[in-house]
Specification:
2 copies of one chain form a homodimer. With 427 residues, chain A is α/β, with parallel strands linked by helices. Chain A contains 16 helices and 12 strands. The first copy, chain A, is globular.
């Protein structure tokens, strides 16, 4: 790179913040919902929905909808916003409670007895599966939870968990859309899952479910799960399958992904290009233990500095997805700040590298903190303050670490969620 | 991608093998040593060396050296090759034994009493630190081992370990070069360490050591290590520092990196280009838990397929470095095959993605197997054979898994080592 550098080192952090803001803006319901709204129908318009972003989506819809509408949407505590015509409910997340069940009933009620002239708009986003939970007839929430816990313990993968869940539910796996028949159904979805599969986002209440009761039984058998008797009986009866692809009741359903992790990363990439920084999107769906992910991405950043590969600096390596933290200590942390602390240790103060990692919903872990920023002098500043970075990582105490450095990123709840955002800037 | 694909799916595995062969060839002493040989000196030529590749380096040198020479080189068991004029010793790896000490004495003897007209050629490669181990006067191998174990247990990083080791050694940290003074010293090195730092490869026996006795003491204090009394006394005496940068005894030393992980990856990249496959080198030094690294690189491969980013297919993602395996089971495995098994699980049979991972020394783990190959049908074939991929991974049993599939990569010892090689091919 010859010539004048457009981004000076002292502007690095500001550029990272702008990229994160661009990513969140690309998933902001107020900005993205309007373009996806259809013409009002001849009949009624009923809005339903579930998810952390769904109240904000409802507010945006209400603000731009030219005709009459009504409806009910459930969101997580802290994510509610004021709506005039759409009722906003709150329920527990990530473990469903009685409010989740009441919300699911209210939503099914809202879409029942509609006519072919009516339109249902379903506002679906991450978290919707827990927030809108209705056990199939004869089952209780406790039955479902027992099976969920057993599946988690035995290491079932997400596809297996979803198959069983959908067959214990009265609303997931396309049943909400079937309940709305013969009305038209338009789903507007914000994805927080790897692959953006509509059948996976909030367990796909409005899309066909290719899995079957027989498969759900086979999964419980495979892992030797001792399910409650009511669950065994329900799966054995196999009454009323979930709607399958081609089901005529879902023939008038449309689905639009209005925000995704990839689109958010592309917005950040565009922001980088404006500053003449080459963006490289590594992946929209990185999973894995946060501290190990940090070592891998740190190694790629070092390769940029040493060899100008996979791209030459000045550049930014962007990634999304959702890492995990195996909690061993008792500190205050979150997966994004744990990633950053491990990244700082991996980079060992290497020159010209900055990084930002944050949860796009504004809450990393349990704290009202979105994430943090790492700079080349992070370790040196920590040492000067008597902070032991390795010890903080061992104690899962990254929020405290970055708080002491004044390097936290605080946005407040963004009321959307396209998962984690990571940017590593190499000048 | 329009037009004819030059690499058909049935050629994918063969292309991966060719890329691995190209990577190993780029580090093959027989191929790379000759170009780095200097003019014979007016005086004697003495060859010394230590490392897994050092016997093969000696053989290559001998075959191309126009004048008289003598010397002694130590390598690991199984890595010896026949030399006519250079004596080849074997010692234990990774934990040094009495043979390591005898080898170090023989090497110091060989370079003592030389004149300014003489030339020492030092052949250094990975493993040399353990294979050529000589405790400082007053210390025993057991003393050094006790400190090493304590440092490992307390989580000291590699730089800290090296600082202490160099100050407990009579040959590391430039002392070999100092012993050869006033002869000229040319070091030919094959790197297996992240960053290719000459002071780190085999603990830098022929390069200046910027670290000090005081720093070594501070590291033991920092971790509260109860070192043997002889070690404490030796560090406190601080007699005869390691040669520092600018030391006149090392003024006639030259150092050449004749093979590195990066050069090996670049050779594989060139092989890919010949087949019109775009190569992308992600990093020459990826570290981290093998199964977690697999999830990250798998996510990047999925991004290639879904979004054509960070590059469009057909392409190959190349990386080097050294992952780790936290052993929890009792199966037969190695870090490269563990990586591959986790990658297969992460990719879930995704179409058009193949991968090869192998240790460039030909030995992944304790087995005489270099690595393995994953194809889109790996999981399906395993299932057909009644193999449980998840269980095999949980039991660290990846060698058995790939053996059952006939997907192992067996090369025999390559007698060189530029660490791990990973290639993920997306057509």
């Amino acid at each position: 790179m010859s010539g004048e550098l457009l981004v000076a080192p002292e502007q690095a952090e500001e550029l990272l913040r702008r990229m994160f803001q661009a990513a969140v803006a690309a998933a902001d319901p107020a900005k993205v919902v309007p373009a996806f709204l259809p013409e009002p129908p001849a009949g009624r318009t009923v809005v339903v929905g579930a998810g952390k972003a769904s109240a904000a989506m409802a507010q945006a819809l209400e603000a731009h909808w030219p005709g009459p509408l009504s409806g009910v949407v459930v969101t997580a505590e802290g994510c509610a916003v004021a709506c005039a015509r759409i009722r906003i409910l709150e329920a527990a997340h990530p473990v469903p409670d009685a409010r989740s069940e009441a919300a699911a009933r209210a939503i099914l009620d809202a879409v029942s007895s509609l006519s072919p002239e009516d339109l249902v708009i379903a506002l679906i986003s991450g978290g919707g599966s827990a927030l809108m939970a209705l056990p199939a007839p004869g089952l209780t929430l406790a039955d479902k939870q027992a099976v969920n816990r057993a599946l988690l313990r035995c290491g079932a993968d997400i596809a297996e968990m979803n198959c069983v869940r959908k067959h214990l539910s009265a609303i997931k796996g396309g049943r909400l859309a079937a309940a709305a028949y013969p009305a038209r159904v338009l789903t507007l979805a914000i994805s927080d899952v790897p692959g953006d599969d509509p059948a996976v986002i909030a367990s796909g209440p409005t899309v066909p479910d290719p899995t079957t009761f027989a498969e759900a039984r086979a999964i419980l058998d495979k892992y030797g799960i001792e399910a409650p008797a009511a669950v065994r009986a329900h799966l054995a009866r196999a009454e009323e399958e979930t709607p399958k692809p081609g089901d005529p009741r879902l023939a008038r359903c449309a689905f639009a992904l209005i925000a995704t992790p990839q689109k958010a990363l592309e917005a950040a990439a565009a922001e980088a290009r404006k500053a003449q920084i080459t963006p490289m999107i590594l992946s929209d769906s990185i999973e894995g233990e946060a501290r190990e992910v940090a070592r891998v991405l740190g190694a790629i950043a070092r390769e940029v500095r040493r060899f100008g590969q996979p791209i030459a600096p000045p550049c930014v390596l962007l990634s999304g997805g959702e890492t995990t933290v195996t909690v061993r200590g008792d500190g205050k942390g979150g997966r994004n700040v744990e990633f950053l602390l491990a990244l700082a240790l991996a980079l060992k103060g290497e020159r010209d590298i900055w990084a930002l990692a944050a949860d796009t919903d504004g809450i990393d872990g349990a704290e009202p903190i979105a994430g943090a920023i790492v700079s080349p002098d992070t370790l040196a500043r920590a040492q000067a303050l008597g902070l032991d970075a390795k010890r903080a990582l061992a104690n899962n105490d990254a929020h405290s670490f970055f708080a002491a450095l004044g390097a936290q990123l605080i946005t407040g709840p963004t009321r959307t969620n396209v998962n984690d955002f990571r940017a590593i800037l190499v000048l």
